[in-house]
Amino acid sequence: MPAGEAFPTPFDLGQPAGQVLAIVLFLIPGLNCTWIVERLAGRTPLSGTERLFRAIAWSLLLYALASPWLLRLIHRLSEHDRLWPWEPIIGFSLVEFVAPVVLGLTVVWIRRAGWFKALTLSRSTYPPPELSP
């Protein structure tokens, strides 16, 4: 049985509207994280395509970190075990909105840390930036 038919959902993943909804729900965490990083660390000279790829990468990381919870939730649903009704709502809210903020703040904090700057300067082939007086 195809995965889209295993669990009844209010939207049909075989239709374009369901596919667009799935893509949007997948991209929201990465777009939120990218937005936070660029607002706190400064805008980067990336094109729209590069920003989209960065958002996809952040989304992949966030969903990979959330995958143990997601797999447990799917397993409990497939076994028809009782499920607290607020668990999926709270969990998806955390994955979609809270985790990207935490990840973005962590990335900016690491990028601003002295040890990270020293590490990247020692590994970089570019000359160090000129410091203005």
Q: How is the main sheet built?
A: none
The H/E string reads HHHHH
> Low-confidence parts, pLDDT < 50 over ≥5 residues?
none
Structural class: mainly alpha
Radius of gyration: 19 Å
> Could you tell me how far the N terminus lies from the C terminus, measured between alpha carbons in angstroms?
67 Å
Mean pLDDT: 79
Helix content: over 70%
Number of helices: 5
The outline comes out as elongated
The strand count comes to 0
Q: How many domain regions?
A: 1
- Approximate strand percentage: under 5%
Describe what this molecule looks like in 3D.
By secondary structure, this protein is mostly helical. Helix content is 74%, strand content 0%.
Features of the shown structure:
133 residues, mainly alpha, 74% helix, elongated
Helices and strands in order:
Elements: H1 3-6, H2 16-41, H3 48-78, H4 86-112, H5 114-123
Helix pairs in contact: 2-3, 2-4, 3-4
Brief account:
By secondary structure, the chain is mainly α. Helices cover 74% and strands 0% of the residues. Helix 2 (16-41) packs across helix 3 (48-78).
